[in-house]
Specification:
Number of helices: 4
Strand order of the largest sheet: 5-4-3-10-6-7-8
Order of helices and strands: EEHEEEEEEHEHEHEEEEEEEEE
Number of domains: 2
Shape: globular
Strand content: 35-45%
Helix content: 10-25%
């Protein structure tokens, strides 16, 4: 397995060889029983999609964990929680580095220090780091060395983005100056490779269960440096956004049963007596719309010049077993009206049958400059993650992960930002 090491503040990376995963020889069907979506065989790979969950301040959390979702390898999306496990999955290999994103733009880095099982599911532990400062490009000599190392380390095994240590620069320099007879021997593929000691990386306390103040962010680890791509949509007319939101809110109220039934038409008066204008009765004041709880409305541009994609999630105000949840994905039609592409309604009493959909954010899961919508499917005692691709006026389910258990006593009803 080849993994990248990234220098501090540098976008240029060098490779090191580590031991191949024990399950690499297994057929893919034996490793991942879920849904797989194929893309072009020329698609860049591998690319790991995960979710960072934390409590405390953004950038300075009190506790955190990284939950693997999917790995794009050889043009296929695999379940990140089990893909190439040895026993921890490839997505949680020691010192793999993730870029934390909000609407496609980086907000920080997260280095995996170690991993463990929480209620039977693998999660990664590490530390949130600020974004590295962009430095100057490497010299021609450094570029030549990187090309040589690339040629010498060709492999069909996966690559993920790994953090870089200063001692590896020294090791690389010694390797370049050493004679062939003094070079270090190739590692034994049957011998486990210990994780390298991190330079001052403090591992945050583990995040357990589903605390009410838990926050989530998209996390991506890639073997290639890619240009930033914001998924935020900019409205030409702010009034259009308000109108679209109001329309979706009305649809949500209908699905949640919050809109009162239409009042019967008033009976016709028996008398034909006409009232003077000053004596006409005042029309009844229409009731205020029912309040949507934990409403989360976001608008994305999931590809260049693709127009707006709207997502609204909300719930009713009631005890958990009596609550109803709604998730809507929509787009404007040619006439400026809202066209709902997907609607999901869940009941708090039957969440293990139909889980509620909670929006995490948008992410380029297939490395093709298109954004997918990433949702958490949260039941009463289990959860999954699902990716939807919005294309040609349809919401296509691209990938769904295997179910994971969680502590139901700490379920949060807060919306995801």
């Amino acid at each position: 397995m080849r993994l990248f090491h990234c220098g501090k503040g540098s976008l240029w990376q060098s490779k090191v060889i580590v031991v191949a995963c024990l399950l690499a020889a297994l057929p893919i069907s034996a490793q991942y029983p879920g849904q797989v979506s194929k893309t072009s065989k020329d698609a860049p790979e591998p690319r790991s999609i995960a979710i960072l969950e934390w409590t405390g301040e953004t950038g300075n959390p009190k506790a955190s964990r990284l939950v693997p979702v999917a790995v794009l390898d050889q043009g296929q999306l695999q379940d990140g929680a089990i893909y190439l496990a040895r026993p921890q999955p490839l997505a949680l290999a020691g010192e793999v580095e993730y870029e934390l994103q909000q609407n496609g733009l980086p907000i920080g880095l997260f280095d995996i220090k170690n991993s463990g099982l929480e209620q039977g599911s693998w999660v990664g532990y590490g530390a949130w780091k600020p974004l590295a400062k962009v430095q100057s490009k490497p010299s021609k000599e450094e570029l030549a060395r990187i090309r040589i190392e690339d040629d010498e380390s060709e492999s069909d095994l996966p690559i993920l983005h790994r953090k870089h240590h200063a001692d590896e620069d020294a090791a690389g320099a010694n390797k370049d100056s050493a004679s062939p007879t003094s070079a270090s021997p190739s590692p034994d593929p049957d011998r486990p490779t210990p994780h390298k000691k991190s330079n001052g990386l403090d591992v945050l306390p583990s995040l357990m269960g589903m605390p009410a103040d838990m926050q989530q962010a998209v996390a991506v680890s890639d073997s290639q440096t890619r240009p930033e791509h914001s998924w935020s949509f900019s409205w030409a007319n702010p009034e259009d956004e308000a109108a679209m939101k109001a329309s979706l809110e009305e649809t949500a109220r209908d699905l949640l049963g919050l809109n009162p039934p239409l009042a019967p038409a008033p009976a016709k008066a028996a008398s034909r007596r006409k009232f003077k204008p000053e004596t006409l009765p005042e029309p009844p004041t229409p009731p205020l719309p029912a309040q949507l709880m934990d409403e989360n409305f976001r608008v994305f541009e999931l590809a260049y010049n693709s127009g707006a994609t709207l997502v609204l999630t909300a719930r009713t105000d009631a005890p958990l077993t009596e609550q109803k949840f709604v998730t809507l994905i929509a787009q404007p039609d040619l006439y400026g009206n809202v066209k709902v592409l997907l609607e999901v309604v869940a009941s708090g009493a039957h969440l293990d049958e139909t889980p509620r959909m909670r929006l995490v954010g948008a992410v380029d899961a297939l490395a093709d400059n298109r954004g997918e919508l990433l949702f958490e499917l949260r039941g009463a005692t289990q959860r999954q993650f699902v990716l939807y691709r919005i294309l040609r006026g349809q919401a296509e389910k691209l990938f769904v992960s295997a179910a994971e258990e969680f502590a139901c006593s700490e379920v949060s009803d807060r919306p995801l930002s």
